Amino acid sequence: MAAQLRKALKQQDIAIIEPCRKHYYQPLWTLVGAGVFPKEVTEREEASYIPYGTTWIQDAVTEFQPDDNTVLTRDGKKVSYDFLVVAPGIQIDWDKISGLKGNIGRHGICSNFAYEYVDKTWEYIRNFKGGNAIFNFPNTPIKCAGAPQKIMYLADDYFRKSGVRDRANVIYASAGKAIFGVKKYVNPLNQVVARKAIETRYHHNLIEIRVEAKEAIFERLDTGDKVVLPFEMIHVTPPMSAPDFVKQSPLANASGWVDVDKYTLQHTRYPNIFGLGDASSLPTSRTGAAIRKQAPVLVKNLVSAMRGKPLTARYDGYAACPLVTGYGRLIMAEFDYDGNPKESFPFDQSKERYSMYLLKAYGLPLMYWHGILRGRL
For residues 24 and 32, what is the distance between their CA atoms, to the nearest angstrom? Predict the structure, then answer.
């Protein structure tokens, strides 16, 4: 966003309030967890990606004061603005699952959703000898809705290669009611599940892990019953939400997300505030591909707002989910708000392809580091 705004608004002061020293290409953590890459290849210095000519305030926002056009920071600064873009990402609520916090990387519990834990997933996959291997999907929006099943398919592949699959029961326990939310890709993914003999349990929301007993407790969202499943390994996708400082702010809607118009990305109550990305109320998948399409729409509309002109750019809800179905296989799902396919290539992307796997593993990281973060794509 900052890089594109810098190009569009050459004479304006642009500041980025961002506390982190490191930046991570998180989509690759699926393949890190499956032993394809070391986690270090996903990490870069944040300073290398701050656009030239912008000001980096290496701090964290703690409070919005939109009526005064200011934000407060962790270090006690009050920063004023004429226009504000809100894109703080999503918050991972590890503590919402009883028994999880403090036990990731122990007792067969792993998760790809943090840099410090992701290599533990590969450790448990390659050392798995049999029993239940559980992969969950929570009852909240998450970043990359396909991620919980991607690592499951890769684990299944490795179990077969290592000769333990006949002693394994691979379980997909999802709070959802289907394997995927876009119709075109549901049947192909169900075929993958059937081919791999994966047990699916829908309407199952993980609420507790009994660490010493190695039991996962699920709530049935359709009946209210509790289900206890023993495990040798469990890959946990934790609940996620907007950051607390967003939830508690005047910018939030009733669900806690930054309340923006789903087409223009302008805030519904504060016309000089815009939002995009995982913390926004946009009713689409929270993926990097979605943000890549949101950014130019926001830039055009923000420039129009600054000049007192109508907001004419529209975001159609485009998102993409590269669904890894095994080592060397991938279904490239692309779709809009209405679940209509918005595919980029001249072939049926609902079929598993090696070419799309190569794009995921090698092409998209290059696009991210050298194109997207630079504001070129």
Answer: 12
Instruction: Tell me which H or E stretch contains 185.
Output: helix 183-195
On the question of pLDDT at 327 being above 90, the answer is yes
E-state strands within 82-187? 84-86, 91-92, 109-110, 131-137, 168-174
Cβ–Cβ < 8 Å for 212, 224: no
Confidence (pLDDT) at 352: 98
H or E element that contains 121: helix 118-126
In a domain, 153, yes or no: yes
- Residue 224: which CATH number? 3.50.50.60
Q: Can you say whether the dihedral through the CA atoms of 56, 62, 64, 69 is positive or negative?
A: negative
The overall longest dimension of the chain from CA atoms, in Å, is 66
Structural tokens at position 84: 């504000």
Residues 121 and 218 in one domain: yes
Q: Do residues 110 and 150 share a domain?
A: yes
Catalytic annotation, residues: 144, 321
pLDDT digits (tens, 9 = 90+) for 34-60: 999 999 999 999 999 999 999 999 999
Helix, strand or coil, per DSSP, at residue 333: strand
Residues 211 and 305 in one domain: no
Domain that holds residue 220: 92-241
Give the model confidence (pLDDT) of 115-147 as tens digits: 999 999 999 999 999 999 999 999 999 999 999
Say yes or no: 165 and 298 in one domain.
Answer: no
Give me the number of domains the chain comprises: 2
